[in-house]
Specification:
Length: 384
């Protein structure tokens, strides 16, 4: 029994001594089966110097070239309202009608007065002609001759006055129809059927022109220095809250002095609006070309990273190791950034797979791609 126990103890001791050796052999086998992982694959793009047009972004407001407050030229009660509020109207459309009956009566009275004055003129002219014949024969005194000539002159003046009065009453009758002076969009009726409208005082409605429209915006002094002449240039216009710029305009006015309070200069662009989608009073975003660069370095925005207040990107060295490069950025280009300092044309920048770069100096497996995979208009929209 004692010999048996001794053998068991010896076997257990030998097993304990061999266990670390076997474990080491297993570890070496595993290292051979799982070699060091290959360098991570990243996409790199070569930086090229390209000519671009630099655009500035501004906030503006849409305004109508013509805004008309419709007020009556004659007083009276409103007899008709001939438009639908908020709709488009054409120049010459009759919008309001003031009760014309009193003015028709005045026209008739003025016509009758003109007829009477013409009759008196005919009588005075006949008497003056007869007096001239009598004066030649010295059949009447000179005083009577002059009196009849004066009577004819006064009768002619009375006819002229009556004709002017008739013309005035006809104008008043015409003014009972309030027409649209310009084509545009009419607002709500401020005075409705049956209300008294006072000449040159009562606001009937407001009319604004809609095609074309103006967009006013302010520019700082630096932008003005970049584009000093303010020549007619195309601009792109978009609405607040949207990213696109569907409207094309033309710069047609630059103010002649700076605003002393804001230090800005006012610009105006004219934009076609045939479908009436733009409305006066809307806020707008405007892009205007401010300068041109013959050799700008453009990098995909996704490749530019931020460390507090500094911007950097990863540049591929000759040994396929990446280095961190601090850069200065300029304006944004549709999906791209202008690099102003810290980068040279011909260098390769990591544009995709940045999350695989654990630390600067890591070796990578670069895949060369085009910096601008989907060509886009080279338009600089806003500051970085």
């Amino acid at each position: 029994m004692h010999a048996f126990n001794f053998n068991q103890a010896r076997s257990a001791l030998l097993g304990a001594l061999l266990l670390p050796v076997l474990a080491g052999c297993d570890a070496r086998g595993q290292n051979q089966d799982n070699p060091t992982p290959p360098p991570p694959e990243v996409e790199v793009a070569e930086v090229k110097a390209e000519p671009v047009t630099l655009w500035g972004a501004f906030s503006g407001r849409v305004e109508a070239p013509q805004t008309v407050e419709l007020r009556p030229r004659v007083s009276g009660y409103i007899d008709q309202v001939n438009f639908e509020e908020g709709k488009l109207v054409n120049a010459g459309d009759v919008l309001f009608v003031i009760d014309p009956r009193p003015y028709k009566a005045r026209v008739q009275l003025a016509e009758a007065e003109l007829t009477r004055m013409r009759s008196q003129l005919a009588l005075a002219s006949s008497e003056a002609a007869r007096a001239e014949q009598l004066w030649e024969r010295r059949a009447i005194s000179r005083e009577e001759f002059e009196q009849r000539n004066a009577a004819r002159t006064m009768a002619q003046a009375a006819v002229n006055a009556a004709a002017a009065a008739l013309q005035s009453t006809k104008l008043d009758l015409e003014y009972t129809q309030v027409t649209a002076p310009v084509s545009g969009r009419i607002g709500r009726a401020e005075a409705t059927l049956g209300n008294l409208a006072t000449a040159d005082a009562t606001l009937l409605a407001t009319l604004v022109s809609v095609d074309p429209l103006y967009v006013y915006f302010e520019s700082d002094q630096q932008t003005v220095q970049d584009n000093p002449h303010g020549e007619a240039v195309p601009v792109r216009i978009g609405l607040s809250g949207r990213q696109d710029f569907p409207y094309q305009g033309q710069l047609d006015f630059v103010d002649n002095q700076y605003n002393a309070r804001t230090g800005t200069l006012q610009y105006r662009a004219q934009v076609a609006n045939p479908d009436g989608r733009l409305r006066p009073g809307q806020f707008a975003r405007v892009e205007m070309p401010v300068a041109a660069a013959s050799a700008a370095l453009l990098v995909d925005r996704k490749a530019v990273l931020t460390d507090q207040d500094r911007r950097y990107l990863y540049v591929l060295a000759d040994n396929n190791r990446v280095e961190r490069r601090i850069v200065e950025t300029g304006r944004r280009v549709d999906g791209m950034l202008v690099i102003t300092e810290g980068l040279a044309a011909g260098e390769r920048v990591v544009v995709n797979g940045l999350q695989k770069i654990g630390f600067p100096g890591i070796e990578v497996a670069p895949q060369l791609v085009d910096m601008r995979r989907t060509p886009a208009p080279m338009v600089v929209a806003t500051a970085p």
